[in-house]
Design a protein that fits this description.
Helices cover about 10% and strands about 30% of the residues. By secondary structure, the chain is mainly β. The structure holds coenzyme A.
Length: about 200
């Protein structure tokens, strides 16, 4: 059993900080994240210390009241609005620098990202069959999740995609194209099955 699960009671979702143990756990999580100079974490955020947060050569900014669970990985150039959550084992990797944000990940307000999501804002180049793919470089493009979106479990969002405001992405989907606002989209590749409201 890890020190953190002893202190947090083994809960998977960072629950309200209503006792000293949880307050200490989230304080440690915020301190671990903000030891990097380009990470901004308001005090209202509940960051589990088991999350791996590193801006690499980019920057990570959380809005007020964000939640990041144990095991989530947030790397590179990533910006969150207010009141977002990232559940266990989701991976968000943005590329580029604040000056040249070629593959920035932008998350709006009130966004829910369930477990095992994968948002990687780059692809390996593979046009040359005579050269190993790993030696052909990367092409990055931004990923944008607008306000009030629910991304269910095990969703893969590819580089260059925008998920429109108010949308729901069903579990296990692979989103390769932009999804219009208020859509319910499912499948691999994700297709809009209906519009909310
Ligand atoms: C998308 C979802 C929210 C249901 O939305 P809905 O609008 O009520 O959709 P329905 O259940 O009416 O399904 C409509 C069609 O889409 C299909 N469908 C639903 N969810 C799907 C999914 N995740 N992947 C592929 N197809 C799916 C249904 O089989 C149905 O197909 P049919 O018309 O051929 O029978 C739900 O299926 C889902 O994926 N929930 C996420 C669960 C999860 O990950 N929870 C943890 C996160 S907190």
């Amino acid at each position: 059993m890890s020190l953190w699960s002893l202190l947090d009671g083994g809960i998977s979702h960072p629950s309200p900080a209503n006792n000293w143990r949880l307050r200490f756990v989230y304080w440690c999580g915020r301190r671990l994240a903000s030891r990097h100079k380009n990470v901004t974490v308001p005090k209202s955020c509940r960051i589990h210390p088991g999350a791996r947060i590193n801006p690499r050569n980019g920057a990570i900014r959380f809005g007020e009241n964000c939640i990041v669970a144990d095991g989530a990985i947030i790397q590179g150039l990533v910006e969150f609005g207010e009141n977002c959550s990232v559940q266990p084992y989701s991976i968000l990797t943005g590329y580029g620098t604040p000056e040249e944000p070629s593959g920035k990940i932008t998350i709006g307000n009130h966004v829910r990202i369930a477990s095992h999501g994968m948002f990687i804002a780059t692809n390996h180049n593979f046009d040359d069959p005579g050269k190993p793919i790993c030696k052909q470089g990367l092409s990055s493009a931004p990923i944008t999740i607008e306000d009030d979106v629910w991304i269910a479990g095990r969703v893969n969002i590819t580089a260059g995609v925008t998920i429109g405001q108010g949308s729901v992405i069903g579990g296990g989907s692979v989103v390769t194209k932009t999804i219009p606002p208020m859509s319910v989209a499912v499948g691999a590749p994700a297709r809009v099955i209906r519009t909310r409201g």
